[in-house]
Amino acid sequence: MSKTNATSKTINIPGNAGTATDATNAHYAVAGKNVALASDTNLQTWADSLPRCGMYDVGLSVAQGNLPAAFWYIELQRYSSDAAGNLYHVITAKGLDGSGSGLMYTNTCYYGTWTGWIQVVTSIAGTATNATNAINATTATAANGLNSATTTVGVSTAAAPTVGQVLTATSSTAATWQTSSSPSMFRNRIINGDMSVSQVNGGTTVTLTTIGYVTDMWTASLSSGGLNCISAQQVVDAPPGFKYSTKFTVTNQHAPGVGEPFYFQQPIEGQNIIDFGFGTASPKTIATGQWIKGSVPGVYSVSIRSGTADYSYIGTVNVTTSWTQAVITIVGTSSGTWPTDNTTGMQWALDLGSGSNFNTTAGSWQAGNYFNTTGSVTFVNQVAGSTLNITGVQLEKVPTGATTGTDFEFLPDDVVLMRCQRYLQPLGIAGNEAPIGIGFGIGSGAVVTQSEFNPPMRTAPTVSIIGSAASIYMTTASIAAYASSGITAVIASPTGCNYQLSGPTTFPIYSCAHIRSAAVGTAILADARL
């Protein structure tokens, strides 16, 4: 293979490896900076009008000053013209030559104009007094220097970082390596903590009985001696960032007996608190946060109880007439019974005025079933019309490296609804003429139908009618409507159920029936709540 030399060209590179007194020279002391040949008077294109074949020298020499040639990577591109004068790329020459010359290319015969650039391969340490373009300069006095902050931020050298740690500012002048505490998805073990889903009651006021359901996942438990003393409702009244809260109103003032419980709670499925490690040798620290306001200011009690209610922790929150967030951090316990299956593993509760049998010391784990501590407001014993609102309830494992909980975790509405429907699925709740299903007559006025549950439910649910059974209609193809008298038989699983509606004996056997709700608030309810 012969070697042919092209027309020579020498490029003078300013700057050196010593002091950079302006941004231009500092530029050359930075790894990865490119200098286009056409942008400098010393870096012009040059023509090689003779055809070159085989291996040849492209004719480039570099006058580098004090910059070692080994620091430079050179790439040139050559273009030719076709008969119409259109330029097209034909070859690229690349090389790294310790002498700064002798860039070689092997190809078939071409000629044309060379253009290209020079790139620094290794950075050269130096001092930049005008460091706009200096990225790796020892000293930077301009605002664009990487280390040019007015205040130096020191990094702890107590230990080298471990995998997963991030550099975290601990003050305006210091930073340390810390394990990332970025919040994880689905960290809140409370479902519907923002009170946004209310499938059955909507915004209707509910007068609470022994166990009253308000918004989805939430129940209010009242002693039989204090029935009809408190009402509850989903209302549009909430702190910034929220829309709904659950509002309690005292309707009949009641002084609770020593053994009377009054509380608002959410049971938590055991499978959702496995990683808390409660009841094991390695329990985790948890935190509960909630937004509360009330017409009766004072100390209110929040409890965390085991699934079997054999162990309790009481924390306190100071409630005012304005929305206030309270966060309670709780070191986990190895004691108590905390199921980790699909039954109740843990219980969160806000006390509404339970009797003294449910009173214990706050701030530590206690064996037994407790809801409040001494000095807590007895809400049920306040004057009629007293109110208490709550929303933004969160229960989470405290992130590694953190000391308390995180901000409330908002999830998309459809996700929250689907999570609630694992426990409760009403069919036909939309109101008048809401479809429920299709069935057929089996004789004696009975109609059999089926429903599929989506998503699958926590366990095989109970299936019942809420509202008026007589408002569930079975309509035949001849448009004859028959009112039901109730559900008489159910075969259910977590994924679906068959059930039998009773109707007038005149309902024709083997006839198809369109089953619908004829009244708002009347529906077939599949209930797998804890």
Commentary on this structure:
By secondary structure, this protein is mostly beta strands. The strands form 7 sheets. A 7-stranded antiparallel sheet has the order 13-14-17-22-19-20-23, with no helix packed on it. A 7-stranded antiparallel sheet has the order 30-29-33-26-27-32-31, with no helix packed on it. Strands 1, 3, 4, 6, 7 and 8 form a 6-stranded mixed sheet that branches. The protein folds into 3 domains: about 5-120; about 205-395, Jelly Rolls (Sandwich); about 425-525. It is about 0% helix and about 40% strand.
Largest sheet: 7 strands, antiparallel
Terminal Cα span: 86 Å
Spatial ordering of strands, largest sheet: 13-14-17-22-19-20-23
Number of helical regions: 2
- Estimate the helix proportion, in percent: under 10%
Indicate the structural class.
Answer: mainly beta
State the name of the first-level CATH class of the largest domain. Answer: Mainly Beta
* CATH H level, superfamily name of the largest domain: Galactose-binding domain-like
**Percentage of β-strand residues:** 35-45%
Using brief descriptors, characterize the structure shown.
globular, Jelly Rolls, 3 domains, mainly beta, seven-stranded antiparallel β-sheet
